[in-house]
UniProtKB/TrEMBL annotation:
CDD domains: ParAB_family. This is Chromosome partitioning protein ParA. It comes from the Bacteria. Keywords: Plasmid. Gene3D superfamilies: P-loop containing nucleotide triphosphate hydrolases. Pfam families: AAA_31.
Amino acid sequence: MFSVENIFELARYRANRRGKPKKKQQVVATVYAPKAGVGKTTLASNYGTLFALKGLHTLIVDLDPRAKLTQSFGYDPELTPDEAASAGISHSRSVEYHFGNLVPNYANERVTLQEVIKKPYGEYGPHLIPADLNLDRLDTILMYDALKERNADFVIGNLLKDGLAKKDSLFAVSDYDIILFDAPPTKNRITSSALLASDYLISPVSMENYSTKALSYLSSVLTEMQNRFERTPELITVCNFFDPNRVRVMGQLMTSAQTLGDSWLDASIRRSEDFAKGPTGESDLPLVLFKPNSQAVTELRESVDALLLRMGLDGPT
């Protein structure tokens, strides 16, 4: 009876009837983990989708040149518009622009936000700034600027500041309730700039691939940022991929909760085969849309509720 687009439209309608969230200013968050294979991109795609299902105007930004997040929404970063046309595929499924095309002085051809964003589930679903391999060029330029002692670390922060203040007509983001960056696991210049621009750092901690070194490295990243810039995003750690039937894993869970203290999100996500299964059909879907009644999605929803509460976007006035 309803299309996916209708579901998001209904979610926005219901949210508008309830009233605006308590927090009036926009929230900027980055999903980052220094270790691959911890479910970072899976969480980013599902969190962004659930934010929109909560009625929040959501912008998701893929900052990883591998473009796994972009693919999770059904776009092909390797497909050119000409190849799409010759294969009979909709031009909209290809990726022509990425975040780098929005950054002043770094893009050969700076375009508007509306030319870059993808809307996989219509106007009221999450909006996506996709990525492809060419995004790596932005990191190279930022590194060169850093060597020349230019202020490369604040590129994303300055772009957001002007966009949110409506000073940059090409980067009109003032209407979004939340902007969510998905950063690559390597701490490159793009990642550093995104972290400095963020209010919150959402970092998944996998109980399946638990790494004390990864947690120690994450701590050192934030400490270094505080020492250099006197600013760090608020850390929110999310327990992911844990099996309550394994004694060792439960021990790691308890230790992590005690070690990470206030940053620990009190809503964990258990290990599930659903995360490993790709959806069938012509295009991919986040798990919350592909299998909405699964236990994994129930826990994702609880995680999002706790996350929004922590970020001050938990309900109407």
